[in-house]
């Protein structure tokens, strides 16, 4: 039974000189073509990867900016329209998460803090394996959905298994005006009544 080498030699002897030249050209052109195709494929892959990295870098800049803001106080124009009933942060954050494309697992409420006539209600929440773009969308929904709701703490960690995802802890706060004390304003009426009786 003839070997592969013998078959190749027989094939080479049977073909014409013109066909031999075509075989030689093909033997040279095919590897070059494959090399060029691989080069373009690698180049396209690197461009796509660079685009993803640049997109991730921009998202991280936004997250870093939000983190750098830290606790905020309500601005004067917000105070004018602020009520005494605080926003339900649990519902607010659940809706923001849905708009960002994920389900919030829950929040942990903090004790309300009253200071300078304002009441601060806060909750903390955990996120895990959340893509950067979804977290960016979630934070934007929190910050733009209401002027009296802000992110007051942001602690993020990269997921080592999936570097495009993040784990983290957030604290979100909402502000409202301190309700007037019960019976406020009745002191002057009582004083007026006492003066009338004294006269």
Any chance you could write out the topology, listing elements then pairs?
Elements: H1 4-14, H2 17-69, H3 76-79, H4 89-100, E1 108-109, E2 113-115, E3 118-131, H5 132-145, E4 149-158, E5 165-177, H6 186-198
Antiparallel strand pairs: 1-3, 2-3, 3-5, 4-5
CATH superfamily membership of the largest domain:
Ribosomal protein S6/Translation elongation factor EF1B
Whole-number tally of structural domains: 2
- Which architecture name of the largest domain does CATH use? 2-Layer Sandwich
Number of strands: 5
Low-confidence stretches: 185-199
Which descriptor suits the 3D outline? rod-shaped
In the CATH hierarchy, the third-tier topology of the largest domain is known as: Alpha-Beta Plaits
Mean pLDDT rating: 75
Tell me the radius of gyration. Answer: 35 Å
End-to-end Cα distance: 137 Å
If helices are DSSP runs of H or I spanning 4 or more residues, what is the number of helices?
Answer: 6
Element order: H for helix, E for strand: HHHHEEEHEEH
CATH class designation of the largest domain = Alpha Beta
Q: What is the helical fraction, as a range of percent?
A: 40-55%
Main sheet: strands, sense, barrel = 5 strands, antiparallel
Percent range for β-strand residues: 15-25%
Secondary-structure content class: alpha+beta
